[in-house]
Amino acid sequence: MTPSRAAKRLTIVIPALNEQDKIADTIDGVLPLARELLDDFEIFLIDDGSTDATGAIMDEFAASEPRIIVHHNPERRGVGAGFEYALSRAKFDAITLIPGDHAFQNEGIARMFKAAGAADLVITYRDNQSDRSVNRSLQSHSLRFILNCLFGFWLSDYHSMIVYPVKWLRQIAVKADGYGYQICALISLLQLGLTYVQVPVSLNAELKGSSRALRLRTYFELGGTIVSLLRRVPIRHVDLSQIPDDAERAPAR
Questions:
Q1: Which of 13, 93, 220, 246 gives the lowest tally of CB atoms within 10 Å of its CB?
Q2: pLDDT tier at 130 (50, 70, 90 boundaries)?
Q3: pLDDT per residue as tens digits for the range 238-250
């Protein structure tokens, strides 16, 4: 008798700040894929203090889909804060964050959904970063090289979409907001020995000058995140006795 597969149930977080021109395209891409490929899901739309029509567009989607929850921040709080809000309320065992600026092609999102449950973590990697601006591509490659050298996991990407296990993520005190939150969370979980698979995804065409990632503030945030990880601050309070003794990282693919 063929064993039944585990149900694919996923909490999806889509944060956005002043993305009225892209948020509808993002949701229109994610929602049909979630309905087709997942057994159940919920979507948290996080309006991070937008001053344009982003929040109103989110409310329109929520009015027609009961599995969509909208949270409006009165002022900007950062991606990390929005993700933590959804994490504290997630009703499923796995959670992921998809940017609200329509950054990823739908085919890659579909691959990530299909891989959910294949390991503790599903780590996607951007396979067309060379199509981006030279500065943005150089920044991403440099960051990956530094993190691989410092922590030794040799991942293909540290800041793409990731499916996290809610149980373990809730135990980690992530000391970062904004751009550094995901890096801090991912490395902390990898340090615990959780299994993972890597899945390729592709970026949509990027408008030159549209990225916020190159701000000076970002470099300070990342520097602080890396220092905290080297001091192992995020994982001091995790109950390591719950990690299986034979936990190993799954091979990349």
A1: 246
A2: low
A3: 555 555 544 444 4
Share of the chain above pLDDT 90, in %: 61
Which residues does residue 196 pair with via DSSP β-bridges, in sequence order? 121
What is the pTM for the complete model shown? 0.85
CB 79 within 8 A of CB 47: no
Of 128, 204, 194, the C-alpha closest to 163 is 194
Residues 160, 164, 168, 173, CA torsion sign: positive
* The pLDDT value given to residue 85: 95
In degrees, rounded to 5, the angle at the alpha carbon of residue 245 between the alpha carbons of residues 244 and 249 is 75
Q: Where are the alpha helices (DSSP H) in 116-251?
A: 134-151, 166-169, 180-191, 216-230
pLDDT digits (tens, 9 = 90+) for 91-127: 999 999 999 999 999 999 999 999 999 999 999 999 9
**Whether domain 9-235 has CATH 3.40.605.10:** no
Residues present in the chain in total: 253
Structure token digits, residue 195? 């299994």
Are residues 79 and 162 in contact, defined by beta-carbon separation less than 8 angstroms? Answer: no
Residues 213-222: contacts with CB under 8 Å, at least 24 apart: 213/136, 213/139, 213/179, 214/135, 214/136, 214/139, 218/178, 218/179, 221/176, 221/177, 221/178, 221/179, 221/180, 222/143, 222/179, 222/180, 222/183
Please give the pLDDT value at position 141. 83
Q: Residues 240, 86, 34, 132: is their CA dihedral positive or negative?
A: negative
Give CA–CA dist 34/114, Å, rounded: 10
CA–CA separation, 103 and 140 (whole Å): 15
pLDDT at 177: 66
